[in-house]
Specification:
Elements (H helix, E strand, L loop, with lengths): L8 H6 L14 E6 L9 E6 L11 E2 L12 E2 L7 H4 L3 E7 L14 H15 L8 E6 L1 H15 L7 H4 E7 L10 H13 L7 H4 L6 H13 L8 E7 L31 E4 L15 H28 L19 H4 L16 H9 L4 E5 L6 H15 L4 E6 L3 H14 L9 H10 L6 E6 L36 E7 L2 H7 L7 E3 L5 H9 L6 H13 L4 H14 L5 H8 L14 H23 L1 H12 L4 E3 L1 H6 L6 H10 L4 E2 L5 E3 L2 H12 L6 H13 L8 H15 L6 H20 L3 H17 L5 H22 L18 H9 L12 H22 L4 H14 L7 H17 L4 H16 L3 H16 L7 H17 L2 H18 L5 H15 L4 H18 L5 H16 L3 H18 L5 H17 L2 H19 L4 H13 L1
Parallel strand pairs: 2-5, 2-6, 6-7, 7-8, 8-9, 10-13, 10-14, 11-12, 12-13
Antiparallel strand pairs: 1-5, 3-4, 15-17, 16-17
Helix pairs in contact: 3-4, 4-8, 13-14, 13-26, 16-17, 16-18, 17-19, 18-20, 20-21, 20-24, 21-23, 21-24, 21-25, 25-26, 25-27, 27-28, 28-29, 30-36, 30-42, 31-32, 32-33, 33-34, 34-35, 35-36, 36-37, 36-38, 37-38, 38-39, 38-40, 39-40, 40-41, 40-42, 41-42, 42-43, 43-44
Length: 1136
């Protein structure tokens, strides 16, 4: 006999059992440790948030032990009277608990945003009578990220969470991985293996947020650090990090897995105070007594913040008061706080040293006084972007409520990405799915306010041409041939171009050359200002600065690099020393150069580059390599998160970037997510690589990093794909030479094919997959498995393309179906939307009635004990409405939904997200009862209000629109249904992918609508596609799958294919009876449609039997007077 696979009995016995953790539901939410009897005497709220896989109470508790191991009394520094309470006796101290377990049978699926939302919702309730009381948050590990996300959400949704962000005066982060717990990932694999050995499930989704430079984490921290500084004075922040390595293997009872989790590189927020504690990650938040020195340091920071809180809030108060009436005629707009997040996305902060260049900012302002478009033109390195940034900041200061918009215009991909950022920042509705058109349409309207758009780097018109997937120049659906055709124009707007090409700049201004400004040369004062930071009175100092400026061809770029180098050398290094470094060939004063101005500048920048690069390479070789990789991309701006993961010393990536910035080689965005490299420095760096022993290294390194970072299509990380796309396009222009580089190129092409397929861009998917196939087949050592994988992907895309080409158009006339169209079609159309609704399970009517009576009794008891308007009572009421959904003969769910909606409206206001969702729920209740006019009005209200809160293309927004379309069909409003279905389907395909259940549902509804127009054959093809996709993703017995099969059977019936129709109806009915029960709405609908088929075939006795079963079921579920019940009665009478 062969040995059994797996661990032996002895191994099993020797293995230590892993602790199985479960968070009790009673420990979730807030627990208050201390508060004064008289609430008006409480001066501050302290809110503590624990980390991952932690008990909400034990997180803050230490069990001291004597040397012999004897346990002493537990110490909870939040709860014990002689700890934090003694230091802040007038504080309400509480902790927040959430289900943080990520492995074991109790592992919870959690998202950071969901936890933050729960925190805010519960905190809002706890502070319902004290919205102005200051708050200090204390977070350990992941709890600190929850605090940041909660602050972001509270700031963005002040109506939903009133006063929370305004009242936040301090935050203490204890071991919070602001940059991700990158180093801890080295041991993560070992921990997973240990957990897997015990056959315990894991939920890794929440851990993904803790990866170093994870995009979600970067965005949260970036947005948080931006928001906390918007309203002066800013929130007080303090970070503590660990100074001892942690035995992270304790998670799986393996003391050999040991490392730092959140050290200084990750546990610090730049620009804010911080300190290390000589503790590991598991003890950083636990203290043994009031005299514990670590506790004292944490306590002192909290107490200091508390002491500052009152004054801080009083300082903020004036900004909350309305401004004095304006005499300018602008009215309330003058009083609005400046919304940086919505209207200002400048890539760089103002440079503290700006050379005025004969008042160039004033010249720009004068030009804009006469024309809405102005162009800055100058050679590479002349400072065009520098001037544009300075003017944009000046404009923002002069017009505080205006929007400032930045477009990187060097490539198609960067241009499109910039427009998408604008669309999202300004919350512009993306009608029709064309981002460029939507932004242009919005900004073209004077009513949408003042704005400035900077298009930086418009140097090559051909690079912005609109191309087909095969690379041919084409006109798009709007008749545009260039992205520049989408530049907006409005009397309320201004457009500032920067370009190196005079003829192109003139063309952008429609040959109005008087609005073109050539960048002037630096004056002597400008040069001295750039080198010294001021204009010296000492003639000799100024003269040597002027001499260096001339030696560097008065190039602002070269002079800035020289100034950076001189500063890096320290006080003993002088401008004269730098002049000596320039060496032979430096232009002599008064001697005319034989070079052109352009060549002079290039030569000067090249010399400055060589000096800077030698210093850089000697100081930090890894930073020097990073510089070469950045330059190889040949891009104006680069998102850097993928580079951080790939450096040999990833934890030091921030240091490398800082060094490059300090040497004047790159610029970093304010939010630290992007860097830019000027074209001249790129050229110098590329020349450096080409002259080395390995001229392809930098490009292939960039290709490898991008390939590794670009997500596979099945991950559905489409936001990351979109952010990386400009970089992907750049690296694909390179032609790798090594086998590894060629293989990376093939892998990246394959990923791109999958990405475009999931977004429904089938032509592009075919191009990338065909390119991938060529790469794989041209490799000397062909990998047959990889080639087969590509061919399968190609076949899948081609099949999808065939289905798409045969998909029905959503083209409906406002008239209803004629003559022989069976009435059951309208019933089916109304019910097909039910996949989005909460349907009762497969229980008998009697069981359902018993459950309903029990829930009603519980609701009545809750009303008696707590009152009708108590939040817990309303939750009970909502639960009853959910249970009644679809089995509500008296329409009781409508009254309950109304009650919940009225409560939400009074509590949160008509435009909060909770209120919008309850509006949608009430619309569904009316919809199910056949009261379509009421349903349509509520759907419209929900959609209108949701548009103002949710991002364009939000799945929730599209779901409302799709539901609304179905009601329009029931009302006979076919034109509105056509438009709603078209927009919903386009949005869902772009956001969710073509095979997402919600996309498939909308496509099915569109097909059924087209069927009403008699387009039977193409509808069959589309329904088959939907059915196959649902069988793959949802399973053959899923409710939605069976519903689609029923729709296909109706199609067969309408085309007189009675035998096929009857077989399919009966097959569906058998499955529904087993899975859902005889009394389920879907089961009854299939019986009804089968009865109609049998009646049409002349099989009246069989039809009569089906109708009788349906009628009895309808009476129980919907009542005698429901439209569906009345319809079945008519059918039964016709065959009686």
């Amino acid at each position: 006999m062969s040995a059994a696979v797996g661990p032996s009995t002895a191994q099993e016995a020797s293995r230590p059992k892993l602790p199985t953790r479960v968070i009790d539901s009673e420990d979730l939410g807030f627990k208050i440790f201390h508060e004064l009897p008289k609430h008006d005497e409480i001066e501050i709220d302290i809110v503590a948030v624990h980390g991952l896989a932690a008990d909400p109470d034990w997180t803050w508790t230490l069990t001291p032990r004597l040397p012999d191991g004897t346990k002493l009394k537990d110490v909870n520094w939040l709860k014990d009277d002689d700890m934090l309470h003694a230091a802040l006796p007038k504080a309400r101290i509480m902790r927040f608990g959430y289900d943080s377990i990520w492995y074991g049978s109790g592992a919870a699926k959690q998202r950071l945003a969901n936890i933050a939302n729960e925190l805010l919702t519960d905190l809002k309730y706890e502070r319902r009578d004290c919205e102005d009381r200051p708050i200090i948050f204390v977070g350990h590990c992941f709890g600190g990220l929850i605090m940041q996300k909660a602050y972001n959400l509270a700031k963005a949704n002040d109506v939903d969470y009133p006063g929370i962000w305004r009242a936040t005066t301090g935050m203490v982060f204890i071991g919070t991985p602001h940059q991700g717990a990158g180093s801890a990932l080295h041991s993560q694999g070992q921990i997973y293996q240990a957990i897997a050995a015990h056959e315990l499930p894991t939920e890794e989704g929440i851990l993904h947020n803790l990866e170093h430079e994870n995009e979600t984490l970067v965005d949260i921290v970036r947005e948080f650090t931006r928001l906390v500084n918007l309203r002066p004075p800013p929130v007080n922040l303090f970070c503590f990090f660990e100074q001892k390595s942690t035995i992270v293997g304790k998670i799986v009872k393996d003391d050999n897995i040991k490392e730092f989790v959140v050290g200084e590189s990750s546990g610090v927020l730049h620009g804010h105070p911080y300190s290390g504690l000589p503790l590991d990650h598991f003890t950083l938040n636990k203290y043994k007594s009031p005299k514990d020195r670590n506790y004292i340091r944490v306590r002192n920071e909290i107490v200091t913040m508390a002491e500052k809180s009152k004054a801080l809030l009083e300082t903020r108060t004036p900004s909350q008061k309305p401004a004095a009436p304006s005499m300018s005629g602008h009215g309330p707009a003058q009083m609005m706080p400046r919304q940086h997040g919505a209207g200002l996305r400048l890539p760089y902060a103002r440079d503290p040293i700006f050379a005025p260049r004969n008042n160039i900012l004033q010249r720009i302002e004068e030009k804009f006084g006469k024309n809405v478009k102005v162009a800055l033109c100058g050679m590479a390195g002349s400072g065009k972007t520098h001037i544009a940034v300075e003017y944009a900041h000046k404009y923002s200061k002069d017009f505080p409520v205006a929007k400032v918009l930045w477009v990187n215009a060097r490539t198609v991909e960067q241009f499109e990405r910039s427009y998408r950022v604008i669309l999202e920042d300004l919350r512009i509705a993306n009608k029709g799915g064309n981002v460029l058109k939507s932004v242009q349409r919005h900004l073209n309207q004077d009513a949408n306010g003042n704005w400035l758009m900077v298009l930086d780097g418009v140097d090559d018109e051909a690079s912005l041409a609109i191309l087909s997937a095969s690379g041919d120049k084409i006109k798009d659906a709007e008749g545009k041939s260039s992205l520049l055709d989408y530049v907006p124009q409005s009397m309320s707007g201004r457009v500032l171009f920067t370009s190196r090409v005079m003829s192109l700049a003139s063309s952008l201004l429609h040959q109005k050359s008087e609005y073109l400004i050539e960048i002037p040369a630096l004056t002597d004062d400008d040069t001295a200002l750039l080198l010294y930071g001021n204009i010296p009175n000492d003639t000799a100092k100024k003269q040597i600065a002027v001499e260096l400026g001339r030696a560097l061809a008065k190039s602002p770029l070269a002079i800035n690099m020289a100034a950076a180098y001189i500063r890096a050398q320290g006080d003993g290094f002088l401008i004269r020393n730098y002049l000596e470094f320039l060496g032979p060939g430096t232009p002599k004063p008064g001697v005319e150069s034989t070079l052109s101005e352009k060549d002079e500048v290039q030569q000067a920048v090249d010399k400055a580059w060589k000096i800077a690069y030698k210093f850089l390479k000697d100081k930090d070789a890894e930073a020097a390599r990073l510089m070469l990789v950045l330059a190889s991309l040949n891009l104006q701006t680069v998102r850097t998160f993928f580079l951080a993961k790939g450096t040999d010393a990833g934890a030091r990536f921030a240091e490398h970037v800082t060094l490059l910035v300090n040497l004047g080689l790159i610029r970093q965005s304010e939010d630290r997510t992007e860097v830019s490299v000027t074209p001249l420095i790129q050229l110098c760096a590329q020349r450096q690589v080409s002259q080395s022993d390995d001229p392809v290294w930098a490009g292939e390194r960039a290709l490898a990093l991008v390939t590794a970072a670009f997500p596979a299509a099945e991950s559905e990380e489409f936001e990351t794909c979109e952010i990386l796309y400009p970089i992907v396009s750049a690296v694909l222009k390179m032609q790798p030479k090594t086998g590894a580089g060629i293989n990376d190129r093939g892998t990246l092409l394959f990923k791109l094919g999958g990405y475009h397929k999931h977004l429904g861009r089938l032509e592009a998917a075919l191009k990338f997959l065909n390119d991938c196939l060529k790469v794989r087949e041209d490799q000397p050592n062909k990998d047959k498995d990889l080639i087969e994988k590509v061919n399968k992907a190609l076949d899948s895309v081609k099949e999808e393309q065939r289905r798409a080409e045969s998909a029905p158009e959503v083209a409906m006339s406002p008239t209803s179906p004629g003559g022989g169209q069976p009435s059951a079609w309208n019933n089916l159309m109304g019910k097909v939307q039910g996949v989005m609704r909460i349907a009762p399970g497969a229980m008998s009517p009697e069981q359902h009635q018993q459950m309903g009576e029990k829930m009603k009794a519980e609701l009545a008891e809750c009303e008696k004990e707590l009152g009708k308007d108590h939040e817990d009572t309303l939750r009970k009421a909502e639960g009853l409405a959910v249970a009644l959904h679809g089995r509500d003969p008296r329409g009781e769910s409508i009254a309950i939904r109304k009650r919940v909606l009225e409560w939400c409206t009074a509590r949160y206001g008509p435009r909060s997200l909770d209120t919008i969702r309850q509006t949608y729920n009430l619309a569904l209740a009316y919809d199910v009862q056949g009261q379509y006019d009421e349903a349509a009005e509520l759907y419209q209200t929900a959609f209108k209000n949701a548009e103002n809160l949710l991002a364009p293309g939000s799945p929730e927004l599209l779901r409302i629109l799709s539901s609304m379309a179905v009601v329009y069909v029931a009302q006979g409003k076919m034109a509105q249904a056509e438009e709603a279905l078209r927009v919903a389907l386009a949005g869902q395909q772009a956001k969710l992918g073509p095979d997402h259940p919600e996309t498939l549902l909308t496509r099915q509804n569109a097909a059924l609508a087209a069927q009403a127009q008699g387009k039977f054959e193409i509808v069959e093809q589309d329904l088959v596609h939907v059915l196959q996709a649902q069988e793959r993703f949802l399973g053959p017995d899923n409710e939605a799958t069976l519903r689609t099969a029923c729709s296909l059977a109706l199609n067969f019936r309408l085309r007189k294919r009675f035998t096929e129709s009857e077989e399919l109806y009966k097959l569906v009915l058998d499955s529904q009876r087993k899975m859902l029960g005889d009394a389920h709405l879907d089961t009854l609908m299939t019986r009804l449609m089968l009865g109609e088929l049998l009646q049409e075939e002349g099989k009246l006795p069989q039809a009569k039997e089906e109708y009788k079963v349906v009628l009895d079921g309808r009476k129980l579920l919907c009542g005698e007077k429901h439209p569906d019940t009345l319809y079945v009665k008519k059918r039964l009478a016709a065959v009686a």
